[in-house]
Protein 1
Amino acid sequence: MKAVCWQGANKVGVDTVPDPKIINPQDAVIKITSTAICGSDLHLYDGFIPTMEQGDILGHEFMGEVVEVGSEVKRIKVGDRVVNPFPIACGQCFFCKQSLTSLCDNTNPNAFMAEAIMGYSPSGIFGYSHMLGGYAGGQAEYARVPHADVGLCKIPNGLTDEQVLFLSDIFPTGYMAAENCNIQPGDIVAIWGCGPVAQFAIRSAFLLGAERVIAIDRVPERLQMAKDGGAEVLNFEQVDVGEALKEMTGGRGPDAVMDAVGMESHGMGLEGLLDKTKQAVRLETDRPHALRQAIVACRKGGTVSIPGVFGGFADKIPMGAFMNKALTMKTGQTHVHRYFTPLLEHIQKGDIDPSFVITHRLPLEQAPHGYEIFKHKKDRCIKVVLKPGQSA
């Protein structure tokens, strides 16, 4: 089959690799009909996530049709149309039973690698380094899905791939990030970043009752998409974000703030240059400019939500502001399985059509071009969907 493979920092290729097979009786194999490039894939592309190996198959946002199931798979059948959550969950461990599926104890065979950095390991994740399991990803023609009865989510008739594909990651991620803001009626939420996750976080914050959402970015098309979703917007290259937020909130600050950027945020001036330099020479793994700003800007007693991916260690976090202002921080890889049914209902009721975020649709063979325009924000690119088996 054809698959998108990591070939080193800033290089991916579409290679011919062996077809996936049933390894465990709880496995399924799906023929992928749609897959996407995620913002967190860029951390792999840029070479900032350790334990990647040349030839690793990328991708954790994918869906398709079941073509084979293991002998112990009961709920999922050949021919089912399914979406696949990006974290892999066993369904039986302490964390899975609490619907904390991205913390599953049993799906990362390389847990020792993650434990060396984090103390304990999260779940395995498709296409996201050997530290998180070494699982082949879904930017491919086929994929093996472990624990298929737990993970695969059946799609009802009448919904297109583009309406449901993002239930695999970015829609639940944006929703959980907004839920983590503990939104109360009348609240103002400020979101750093207007990428795909942030676009869903904006709309989710309104679904959960926020009165105002303020979105911060510098890319015109992303700011416009945020405005289309009801947000007020700030271009961080044109205004002092902290002062602007004070003015927009009557001097009190946002009730909740969200870092939807993560480890590669773009800082301005000396601070931004210092972060980039330290990251380049591995004196700092993450660039936390957006997180620093968010913590300082949040009102006293407010909430800091972090859906943006961080990989290791970040410097100069304003812990004095965090502690003295009595802030609450909530974060984590998304427990996608928990959100699938309620978010599917929102789609079916017409509350949201997730396809709004797609700007580019490409054949799988054009994935290297997709990565290039997504990373560098060329051609007004916000979200790329890849279609295996489709010609240019």
Protein 2
Amino acid sequence: MTHRRLTCALLAAALTPLALALTAPAAHAATAAKPYDFNGDGRVDLAIGAPGATVGGKSKAGAVSVVYGGTGGLKTATRTLITQNTAGVPGTAEADDAFGSAVASADLDTDGYADLLIGAPGEDVDGDTNDGYAVVVWGTKSGLSGARSVPNFLERDADRFGQSLAAGDVEADGDPDIVVGSNGPFKLSFINGPFTRTSSSQGGSGAGFPAPYSSTYGITSLSVGPVTAAWHTNLVVHGRKSDGAAITHLVTEPNIGNYTDWMQTLPAGYVSAIGDIDKDGYADIAVGNDRETSADPAGAKGGKVTVVYGGPAGLDSSRAPLVLTQDTAGVPGASETGDRFGSGVSFGDVNGDGYADLAVGASGENSGAGSVTVLYGSASGLRTSGVQSFTQNTAGVPGSSEANDRFGARVLLADHSGDRRAELTVSATGENGDGAVWSLRGATSGATTGGAISFGPATTGVSTAGSPGYGTALNS
């Protein structure tokens, strides 16, 4: 049936969990939870988007699997499957909804449990094809349960609402807000917090974004983090020009009336991550551009990642950006056409030294088998010595490298175990035609393959009919 978006009443029915018997449930927290800590136990949980999943016989309806963290890392025995056929989730699973195309998280109601945002850009609303839709699923002591729609104040001027998502205090007023990317005349929507289970919306606003942002592509990806000293949470916004080439900006203040004052130009790319590499108190930005120059003039042979260092006002103009390719001295491999180095980027502290490390996916490496590179932070910036590289042929990594696995399509560095060292989580969206996820533990020596795990969609209840694209989205 066609979903009606503006119904935002509380939907109290709990999600149907799969083996949701969590051990030692956390007490109610007094302060807001970190993103993706859905049960408030201090560990980051993992949301896995499979927008191509078949649900109730509907092709490409989409699903999201959530695997909870534990003392040994991710625990597939404690998980929740979320679709639009899950009790309490607004709407109904329909063909081509693409539920799970994007995910984001924040403790939107500041109850001590992070909440999960899910985008379904293919959702039809009131007869409008691909109008799009987004939903909040609420965190609780026992995991995710209950949901409500995210209001779209600009539905007549935006399509594919939910194709990108972010959450954080972008207004710097102490309340977390929701940011939704779409295409059309208005490409970015801000939904003002606080956003709770029972309250009416606090209102919102939209940004059309000036040329050369194309309305056809809209806002394709978003990242959030505290880049500038004057603003609590900044946005990195990705879109495309009319010819398909990437364009990227840092939003230093969401003052919708004056674009030139709140946008700083970043190196063009399709994905980004924000983290403090050198522990100077200012976050840095890594922008991945995995395209060849024939597809994007800002790309590079085999793809590239550009690291821009942050300062008090945003970008630090006194420090030259660091451009990384597989031809960079110290980076394993060599730049070859189609490697797609930069298909995924993520910051996290793998070795527990307080400096943000960088994981880079190269999903096209070796005829699409894929690889992941990990570079380590230091007081002087990102090091190109001691770099690690992983494929499915690396000793201790489950599986074997095969053409079109796309290992490294998405990467994530996050502490799922609570030991203050980030695990390296990798998705391979083409594995066995279905997609799969790997997780490697962090250690003082770096990422380690000891105890590495891998699992596919069937493990978490996602149908393998068609091409589910398991791992198309991971924690943003």
Protein 3
Amino acid sequence: MSNFVINGLLQSRNPLLTFRRFRGKINIQRPRAPHYERARVLEVIKPVYKRPEFNAPCIEAQKANETKKLDNPYETIIAREARNWFDHSNLVAFLHVNSIRQEDMFKAQVALHRHNISVKVYGKSIMRKALAGTKFETILPLFEAKTAIVFAPDPQKIKQVLGVLKKTPQLVLLAGIVEGRLLSRNEFVAYATMPDLTTTRAQLAAVLDSAGGKIVADLQCHQSQLVNLLEAYAKRDPSSSVDAGEKVES
């Protein structure tokens, strides 16, 4: 009896589940509309995209440029150093750097360093920060390509600079600044042929002295000539004048 109850009445039966595909053919191009509740949910969670503006690409490009122009503390430090070089150098030369081996560039730097001349290479953004709003702002177009800068405390080092550049044709002289004045390439080379300031002052003093001496000599010319004639007349022998008089009477 207990066995009957257990096996017949108390036995649980698990339902048999079978999965069947939709009886109709699924239309991919025109799917069936979803159920009302599902359609409401899909409408709520549907993403909303902002309509792009007409000049959106230009605005995005401008924002990208502004992002790139963020203040870089390291560039600010280097720009301050470059500005200090310009303020404390009486001779500055700008060199266009063509294709050159690093070994040759190092030799040129060593040759200039022996004459207490420094060679620096800065980027365009650093030079813009260093020279913006200064009297050297006009040289910024020179940094569109790779440009090296030569700094020297003494303007008379210009001959040494030209001598090293003559041995290094990969470095082309573009322009220069001598004692705060911007010079072109031809003016820079012509300045090298001029004597130093001390020699020029000595030559000017000699010219002024000679001019003054000539004026004094011209003013005293007649007096000196008269004195010489009187001295010659005073030193003349009187006997010779008497003999000359007797000969004239005879």
Protein 4
Amino acid sequence: MYRKDKEEEMKESSKIIREELKQMQDIPYKEFTCKLIPTKKKEEILGIRMPALRAYAKKLLKERKQESEEFLRDLPHRYFEEYNLHILLLEGEKDYEELILELEEVLPYVDNWATCDISSPKIFKKQGENLYEKALEWIDSDKTYTVRYGIGVLMEHFLDEKFREEMLDVVAEVKSKEYYVKMMQAWYFATALAKQYEKAISILERKRLDEFVQNKSIQKAIESRRVEESRKAYLRSLKY
């Protein structure tokens, strides 16, 4: 009986939050979002601008903590914005181990690049080897967006003072036919060329990346203001 009551509470909280999200719908923005995320069905997208969604997440965490927690327990969700809200609610988690448990509950349900990429928990900035090991686990997943998420973690948190050359190898060795994994690999190497050029360039010189990832990495690096202009001509010469 207790478990049934808790499940009903979760469903009720999700229903309330879902209805409030629907009230924030912006139809023109929905049309824009549908074009931006072709992997999502149109009926699964409400169309809510991210600043509004972030403000709503902040309000839930501050004023309706229990409701938020019940919403997080109620997976799977129905709408794209519900998953985005889910990820944003986790941003406020201050316990690293709890955050990892929460992320691993929702990551298998993530089915698009936008939801995957908005996640940037503040607590990750304080983590070192434990987060790196977890990123390796995510990269080894058979789920497209879990792999993308793991590469994103390495890009955001391990290309500065925590960088080690072996991390380039980890991303270079990812072999995937998935477009959104390849695009994250390219984004990673373009960023690495801006932050760790002397180490990253050797990966491209040896053509360890497949043709798409190599060429896209170079394209993104050339377009970046963070890569020195003097290096861009040489980068062009490394295209397949």
